[in-house]
Amino acid sequence: MAVARGTSLNHISRESSDIRRLANFYKEIFGFEEIESPDFGEFKVIWLNLPHAFAFHLIERNPNYKLPEGPYSATSPISDPSHIPRGHHICFSVSNFDSFVQSLKEKGIETFQRSLPNGKVRQVFFFDPDGNGLEVASKEDPKQ
């Protein structure tokens, strides 16, 4: 039996040197809504909410930390989205997969597409402005 009971996803956080840029990306691409966030004084945060899903906390990066900011700041920059399926990423599902992918292409966002082995779910992989891996999956058709 699991130690935790009644578990649900509360929020995901990402640090960034430009939380406004990252917030605008997630609002434009996925429809996150900006919600009230606390004033921590020493660093800035932007809290986003995806209705009926989860919250996303964007935290101003501490420039004194030696942690890599994201894949783009790694020793060997990662810029090929075909590597995302086996790496760290967040996945969203959408009901308008084809038009979503077309919108990414129109925005000049490099993508990698594939399907699950059963062919029922299509996937597109790409990076956010900080180089974090993202996946968007088509919602499985319940009639299949």
TrEMBL record:
A GO MF label: lyase activity
Cross-referenced CDD domains: VOC_like
Keyword Lyase: yes
Keyword Lyase annotated: yes
Superkingdom of the source species: Eukaryota
Domain VOC: 8-139
Alphabetical UniProt keywords: Lyase
UniProt cross-references to InterPro entries, sorted A to Z: Glyas_Bleomycin-R_OHBP_Dase, Glyas_Fos-R_dOase_dom, VOC_core
Family annotation (Pfam families): Glyoxalase
Protein name: Lactoylglutathione lyase
Organism of derivation: Tripterygium wilfordii (Thunder God vine)
Organism phylogeny: Eukaryota, Viridiplantae, Streptophyta, Embryophyta, Tracheophyta
